[in-house]
Structure formats: C-alpha cells, structure tokens
Amino acid sequence: MNVLTLVAHPQPGSFTYALARAFETGVKKAGHSITQVDLYEQKFSALVTGAEMASWKSGYVPEDVRSQQTMLKQANALALIYPVWWGMPPAILVGWLQRVLIQGFAFESGKQRAGLLDIPAQIIATIGSKDRPGERLFESYFSDLLGVFSYCGMHSHPPLACWGLNAATHQSVRNDYINAALTCGENILISNHSKV
C-alpha cells in the first residue's frame, strides 16, 4: 500500500522535514511504500487562475494538477506535514487543496453529495505557540482542514499537533514529537481512524 505525503516548508533543514522523515520511517516499518511530494521543491503553483476555474466545468485539468490527482488516486492514504503560520497551513498547501481537490475528482455535489476519496488522512503540524486549551487553538488550527477531508470522503486520524516549537525547545521534546510522527506513519493504514 502507498501513502502520499505532502510536505510544505520552504527550508529542507526544518523540523517539519525531520517529522516527515520520521513519518516515512514509520510507513516503511509497517511494510508500506511512500510517495513524498515537496511542494516548495516542485514549485507547485498555489494560484487558481480565472481560466483554470472556468475550465472546471468542461473537465479540463492542467497537467500540474492532473499529476497530483493521479498520485492521490493511486494512494491508499494521504498525509500533510506542515508548519502552522498565522493559524493556517502555508499558502502553497492551501493552493494544492483548492486546485487538486475539485468537484468531479474529490467530491460530487448536488442532492446526493458524496466524497470520492475513501482513504485515511493524517495531519502532522508544527506550531510555534504553546497549546492554550481555554483558547480552543486546536480546533481553530485544524477544523477547516478536517472539514475538507470529510467533505471529500476521507477519514481522519487525530492530527499530531507539535506545540511550542522554537529555537529554545529542548531536544527531548523534539524527540517525543519525532517518535509520535513515526507512530503516525506506522498506523496510517490501520482502520482505527474516525470519520470527522
């Protein structure tokens, strides 16, 4: 089985990439393969143009989007690994979602709305701030993306939120997050996920 993993961080030496490597190790340890897409390295265009939007009605899909859709269709699971910036994923990842998960590919709407991607999904995100439960940051940072997964028929594992990461973060905390990402990779294709 294959896991499509999207990594969205402009610096390959970042902790986001360390988490991606740990996740990949977990996936392989569980006996699966992984297709990792580095959105920044690919220079994936996050912009939906007017012409592209108009072409959705005719069924035309630009080649850069079609190649992403092909990888997703061949995948048995999807993982997104990214930093939270200003409460949301990087624009390049949001653009990927908006351009790739389009009607006719990821969902059908109308009287019988249906998500077309019946696969598990995992979010692994780094967050500079500490969790402040009274402020509902977890919900704020992840509810929209979990809603996208659900709308498209995906089943989400609980997001791995790596809170309080900055230059002063102790290595033991980083190691705990690395181990948690590895476990996410091992479990991505286990059916204990919940439909959000």
Could you walk me through the main structural features you see in this protein, from its secondary elements to its overall organization?
With 196 residues, this protein is α/β, with parallel strands linked by helices. The chain has one domain (2-187): Rossmann fold, CATH 3.40.50.360. The chain has helices at 15-29, 39-42, 50-55, 63-73, 91-100, 137-151, 171-187, and strands spanning 2-7, 33-38, 77-83, 107-108, 114-115, 120-126, 155-156, 160-162. Strands 1, 2, 3, 6, 7 and 8 form a 6-stranded parallel sheet that branches. Strand 6, helix 6 and strand 7 (155-156) form a beta-alpha-beta unit. Helix 1 (15-29) packs parallel to helix 7. The two termini are 23 Å apart. The model has no long low-confidence stretch (mean pLDDT 94).
Can you summarize this structure?
By secondary structure, the protein is an alpha/beta fold.
Present the secondary structure layout:
Layout (H helix, E strand, L loop, with lengths): L1 E6 L7 H15 L3 E6 H4 L7 H6 L7 H11 L3 E7 L7 H10 L6 E2 L5 E2 L4 E7 L10 H15 L3 E2 L3 E3 L8 H17 L9
Parallel strand pairs: 1-2, 1-3, 3-6, 6-7, 6-8
Antiparallel strand pairs: 4-5
